[in-house]
Write a structure and sequence with these properties.
273 residues; alpha/beta; eight-stranded parallel beta barrel; 9 helices; 8 strands; 45% helix; globular
Length: 273
């Protein structure tokens, strides 16, 4: 089992300091969006090697696009550029790709998935489709029929988004959830609720129901992965503002984000080791 620390929210921390903290906290690597900050990726790869840490890439098309065809072109360009972030010592474990938009039609989604499959095969690096609001994979009932037609499709499951979109814990969509679990290869572990994709603090008693709803799904996924003897990777993914609300917190938001993700990692490590 490998826990990956998100770079998201910590982009202002120099890489050498950040990776030292990642290592000391007990993470096995990082999940990183290289287009989210300036810098030379070769320096990052060298530091990862020196700290004996792995990395995965998370990505989305962030540049404006005029129409679907221009989106597809940008997606292809971004995926190729990001796939080149590797050297003789380090290559990404996988990509977690936030693809498309919630209003893309069936054929447009198919084109996006086909492109991802072609690039995955070229570089021999898995591309997982991340379940996310605002993307094609924004809801359980949307993803389930696609999985039925795409048996090789692999997911990064962030079920907090689905809970928020559905305004439920998907109790009446268990068939769709089970199908998603079968296709899941990586977990984004953030506790959301029926009203938001990130709770104030998952350790608070008022969020016990939300925590239990996530853990029920993760337990099922862990048992499945153990049966197939596949590498289990999890990214605790409590995010920065606006996911993280300041309110009356006394710590800085950076320290709070770090604390929440460390809590999530330790909770799951104690549960599944």
């Amino acid at each position: 089992m490998k826990f990956l620390c998100p770079r998201w929210g910590f982009e202002d921390i120099p890489w050498n300091i950040f990776l030292k903290q990642v290592k000391e906290e007990g993470y096995a690597g990082v999940e990183w969006f290289p287009f989210g900050e300036p810098g030379d990726y070769r320096t990052v790869l060298a530091l990862l090697q020196s700290y004996e840490l792995d990395f995965a890439i998370v990505m989305a098309v962030i540049e404006p696009y005029r129409n679907f065809e221009s989106y597809l072109q940008k997606l292809e360009m971004d995926l190729h550029q990001l796939m080149e972030i590797r050297d003789q010592n380090k290559a990404p474990l996988f990509f977690s790709a936030q693809i498309g938009r919630e209003f893309f039609d069936e054929q447009q989604i198919k084109k996006c998935l086909t492109l991802c499959q072609q690039i995955e095969e070229k570089y021999q690096t898995p591309i997982y489709q991340e379940t996310h609001r605002n993307k094609w994979s924004y809801a359980a009932h949307i993803v389930a029929p696609v999985l039925a037609n795409e048996p090789a499709l692999k997911l990064t499951l962030d079920v907090s988004h689905w809970f928020c979109v559905s305004e439920s814990y998907l109790e009446d969509q268990q068939e769709a959830v089970n199908k998603a679990i079968l296709h899941t290869k990586h977990i984004h572990a953030r506790i959301g609720s029926t009203q938001s994709s990130q709770v104030w603090d998952p350790a608070n008693a008022e969020y016990a129901e939300a925590l239990a709803a996530h853990v029920k799904i993760w337990d099922q996924w862990i048992e499945q992965m153990k049966l197939t003897n596949e590498l289990i990777t999890i990214t605790p993914e409590f995010g920065p503002a606006p996911y993280l609300v300041k309110g009356n917190r006394t710590n800085s938001l950076v320290d709070e984000q770090w604390r929440l993700n460390a809590w999530m990692k330790n909770f799951l490590n104690n549960r599944y080791r």
